[in-house]
Amino acid sequence: MAARVFVPRDATACALGADAVAAGIRAVATSRGLDVEVVRNGSRGAVWLEPLVEVETASGRLAYGPVEAGDLDSLFEAGFPGSADHPLALGPVESIDWLAGQQRLTFARAGWADPLSLDDYRRLNGFAGLQRALGMTRQEIVDEVRGSGLRGRGGAAFPTGIKWQTVLDAPGERKFIVCNADEGDSGTFADRLLMEADPYQLIEGMTIAGLAVGAAEGFIYLRSEYPHCKVVLTEALARAEQAGYLGDGIRGTEHTFRIELRIGAGVYICGEETSLLDSLEGKRGLVRFKPPLPAIEGLLGLPTVVNNVLSLAAVSTVLAAGADHYREFGSGRSRGTLTVQLAGNVRRGGLVEIPFGATLRDLVEGYGGGTASGRPPRAIQVGGPLGSYLPESLWDTPLDYEALEEAGGMLGHGGVVVFDDTVDMAQQARFAMEFCAVESCGKCTPCRVGSVRGTEIIDRLIAGRDRERNLAVLEDLCETMVEGSLCAMGGLTPYPVRSALRHFPDDFR
Prior knowledge:
Blueprint: E1 3-6, H1 11-15, H2 18-31, E2 36-39, E3 53-57, E4 60-64, H3 72-77, E5 89-92, H4 97-100, H5 118-123, H6 128-133, H7 138-148, H8 160-169, E6 176-181, H9 190-197, H10 199-213, E7 217-222, H11 227-242, E8 258-263, H12 273-280, E9 304-308, H13 309-321, H14 323-327, E10 330-331, E11 334-335, E12 337-344, E13 350-355, H15 360-367, E14 377-382, E15 389-390, H16 401-406, E16 415-420, H17 425-439, H18 445-462, H19 467-484, H20 488-492, H21 494-503
Parallel strand pairs: 1-2, 6-7, 6-9, 7-8, 12-16
Antiparallel strand pairs: 1-3, 3-4, 4-5, 10-11, 12-13, 14-15, 14-16
Helix pairs in contact: 7-8, 7-10, 9-10, 10-13, 17-18, 17-21, 18-19
C-alpha cells in the first residue's frame, strides 16, 4: 500500500516552494523504489512552517517543516516517509503547540484533505448543515443563524441573522446571495486560505443562505489577485453541481440554487458592499448612498444578501452543530470564534482561530512568538490598513468587537500586523492617508480631497513646519472625513492617523 504524503497547494506554500517539494518527493521516492502517493492538501495556516509536509501513519499524521526541496535526500535517508529522526520532524500534527492551542470551527477541515475531493469533504462532516437545512423552513434557518449570534466577519460585524431576515421579508420573487471574496486588507488572507483549503464549505454556506431567504442565484466576487482560488473554486463549483449540491433539484428536493464566479476589478474600494454590487453589474465600482440598503435594493435593485467568505462558511457550522453549540464560544456579544491573521514583523505568522476574548498580547507573544527581528514590538495594527495603531499599554484589551472599539480600535477582518521598535509611526500615519488617496473611489469630497490634503499636512509635520497649526488643521480634517465620508474608506482613514498622533507623538517631532 502506498504511503500517503500531504504537500499543501495553498498559494503561500507554493510561493515558498511547495510545488518543487511535491515534485521532489515523487522523484526521490521513484529513484528509491518506494510507493508514495502525494496528495496536494490545503494549508493549515501555519505560514511559518510552510511548506508543511505531512505523512499518514497508522497512529496519525506526522509533520515536517518547513521543508525545502534540498532537504528531501536527508529526509528519506532518515526514514521518510514515516517517522524520521530529522531536524525538520515536528511529531504528530495535533501535538504542534501552535495548532493544538486553537479552537477551530470554521477551519476545522483546513489541511486535512484534498480540497476538491467531495468524498473527503463528506467524510469530514461536510454538507451536514445543508442536509439539515433542506428539512427546515426558511424562517427556521434564519432563526437558527440569529440564535447563534453570528456577526459579519468582513469587518462591519452586523448580525448575520438580522440581515437575512430583512432579505427574507423583502417582497419579490427574485433575490440574490453575494459572497464578498474581495479580500484586500493588508495582512489578511483568511478568505483566500479557506477558499483554497475548503471550498465546499463556502458553497454549502451560500446554498444554505439561498434556502433561507428564497434566492436561487448566488455570486462569488473574487479578488483578482487570487488566481489559485479561481482555479480551485471553478473546479469545486463544477463538481458540486455535478453531484447535485447545486443546480436544479438540490439533493432530490424542489430547491434550486446556482453560483457564478466573478473576478473583481482589482481595486480596494470594491470590497465595500455597494461598490462591489456596482462592479458586479458591470459598472465602475462606486459607493452607493444608503438607504436603500442592499438587503432591500441590492444587485439589479433586488433584495440581496451580501456576506463575507468567513460569515457564509460559518453558517455551515451553525446549521451542522446547532446555534447553541456555536454560541458556547466567544465573549459578550461576540460569539463563535475569531479568525486572526498574524503578519508583519512576527516570528510565527499565520492563521489563528480562537474564541473571542483573547488579548493581543496572547496572540503576538504566545502564538506569534514575538517579532521576527528579535527586537521589542512597539505597535500593533488591528483591522487592516484603516485600523488603529495600538501601543503596548493596550495589548491586554480583549479581542472582541466592543472592547476593541472602546479602546479606540476595530477588529475588522482580523488582520494583525506587528511592528518592532524601529518603526517610524509618522510614516505609518502618512501611509494610511496616502492609501486612502490612492484607493478612494472619488465619489465624495471628504475622502477624495481630504486624503490628499491629509498627506500633505503630515508631510509638513514630518518636516517640522508650523507644528501646532498643522496639528489643528489635521484634526479638523480628520473630523470632517469621519463625519462626512460616504463610506468607511474615508470615515476610517483618520483612525490610524489619530492613533499614531495620540500614542506616538514624538515621531512627529
